[in-house]
Amino acid sequence: MKTEHAFFERLANLGQGNWDVKLQPHMVPGQMDLASYTARVYLVDTSTGWTAAGAIQPSGFAGVVKAQRNAGLSVDLVMDMAGQAISRLGREQPGADAPEVAQAIQLTAAALASTQTFKTVQPSGLDGHWIYMAYRLLDASTICRPGFFRTGAPGFAEPAAITHYVRQVVAHDLGSPKSTMIITVGNTKGGVGKTTIALNLAIARALQGRDVWLIDGDRQGTAQTAITIRAENGKQPAISCAHYPDGATLRAQVQQTGPKFQDIVIDAGGRDSTALRAALILSDVLVIPFAPRSLDVWALNDINNLVQEARAVRDGLRVVAMLNNADPQGHDNADAAAAVADFPGMEYVETPIRRRKPIANAAGQGMSVLEYSPKDQKSIDEVTALVNAVFMSN
Ligand SMILES: Nc1ncnc2c1ncn2[C@@H]1O[C@H](COP(=O)(O)OP(=O)(O)O)[C@@H](O)[C@H]1O
Ligand SMILES: [Mg+2]
Questions:
Q1: pLDDT of residue 335
Q2: Which of 189, 196, 219 to mutate to test the pocket of ligand 1 (most atoms within 8 A of CB)?
Q3: What pLDDT score does 22 carry?
Q4: Quick one: DSSP state of residue 35?
Q5: Which of 83, 173, 304, 366 has the fewest CB atoms found within 10 Å of its own CB?
Q6: What range(s) does the CobQ/CobB/MinD/ParA nucleotide binding domain occupy (predicted)?
Q7: Which atom of ligand 1 is nearest to the CA of 199?
Q8: Torsion of CA 313, 319, 325, 329, to 10 degrees
């Protein structure tokens, strides 16, 4: 026990002086100025759900790795010690400002350094977040997994975003039987922003490192055109895209090729098309964009009828309605929320997406507003909230 403690101290000390650590006092997003910090690190114990966060300014990164080697510490040992620290903290559940948490952040940083995660992941444009999660095994031993995810958030990520990310990683690691997530963006009404939202969802997931397939199910092929422009501009990440306006073809292709992808986003087109019906049978989630004007709200009736048909032949279709092209404020938004509440089994996304030029401009270039320049933080926050709401239960 004493040896273990000494070892722990020695390891934690490796980073000191090289890392300036700032801890998040509690898991509430956005309350710290992290402008000068290059890395945000989260400690997650998957068995208790305990999470702590710290921002670190790693200087002398190479020096830490060298010191580890000189001290005869292997990568496995460093990871193991970081994992033990996280799982011990998870059991004790201390506040994020406890000294042991600072030490565990140091250890985690050492582990990220020794696994070369800092080096291999080069966040460009968007802020990056390092997650270090510990799994407790049945024999009480612990294994760890470093991860990296991107959000547009300037400070610490929302706790919900972290939970969501961790769930995905766990599902991936534990070999979830069906890991492909199929999202349809649909509304029988045109011009409500289906293509815009589908593009943003698909690209947001690709930016998180997911392997995404965007399917354009609309005869007009607007999503496909946007992705072609993206490809011509050489914009990364490249998005795989196919155009299947015919329902039977869409179904066959998703069944055959779908499992190769982690996420499939279907832009289901405007009218009550065969593609929309096929997509509703295949999807995990239907996202319904609608505008906060009474006619559009009534149009929810139409799509809801199709949802009822689909639910009669299948289980588990989640339906999420969201306001797009919303007005700055006023009663319309609240009225829309109330209208959605009238449909049983339809969720409402609390953060509407407002009518914003950068969102339209980005989509015209085959881009998400998350990667659009000049950066528009309000658009980014709204789209990020939608992405979190849609993929949360994955
Ligand atoms: N949040 C938004 N802010 C600004 N313009 C938007 C927004 N959402 C959609 N638009 C614009 O509204 C129009 C219709 O959107 P689109 O995605 O093509 O709808 P749909 O696919 O449902 O027909 C397009 O010109 C698009 O640029
Ligand atoms: Mg469209």
A1: 82
A2: 196
A3: 81
A4: T
A5: 173
A6: 183-369
A7: 17
A8: 140
Encode pLDDT of 141-199 as tens digits.
788 888 887 765 667 877 777 877 887 787 777 765 556 899 999 999 989 999 999 99
Q: Does domain 181-391 have CATH number 3.30.2130.10?
A: no
Q: Nearest CA to 367 among 245, 234, 187?
A: 234
Determine which residue's CA is closest to atom 9 belonging to ligand 1: 193
Give 3-state DSSP helix, strand, coil % of the chain, rounded to 5.
45, 20, 35
In terms of average pLDDT, the best of 2-6, 92-96, 146-150, 322-326 is 322-326
Domain edges within the chain: 2-173, 181-391
What average pLDDT does range 347-357 have in this prediction? 92
Compute the chain's Rg from CA coordinates. 23
HSE (CB half, 13 Å, CA atoms) of 115?
20
What separation in Å is there between the alpha carbon of 166 and the centre of ligand 1?
32
Q: How many angstroms separate the first and last alpha carbons of the chain?
A: 40
Q: Which of 88, 151, 111 is nearest to 159 (CA)?
A: 151
Say if ligand 1 is within 6 A of residue 361 CB: no
For 160-163, the CB contacts below 8 A with 24+ separation are: 160/388, 160/392, 161/384, 161/388, 162/42, 162/44, 162/51, 162/129, 162/131, 163/49, 163/51, 163/392
Ligand 1 proximity of 87 Cβ (cutoff 6 Å): no
Helix (H, G, I), strand (E, B) or coil at 342: coil
Work out the number of other CB atoms within 10 angstroms of the CB of residue 106: 25
Please tell me the distance from the alpha carbon of residue 383 to that of residue 200, in angstroms, as a whole number.
Answer: 7
Nearest CA-CA partner of 51 in 87, 7, 2: 87
Q: What percent of the chain has pLDDT over 90?
A: 38
pLDDT at 49: 81
Q: How many A from CA of 194 to the centre of ligand 2?
A: 5
Give me the mean pLDDT over the 296-322 stretch: 87
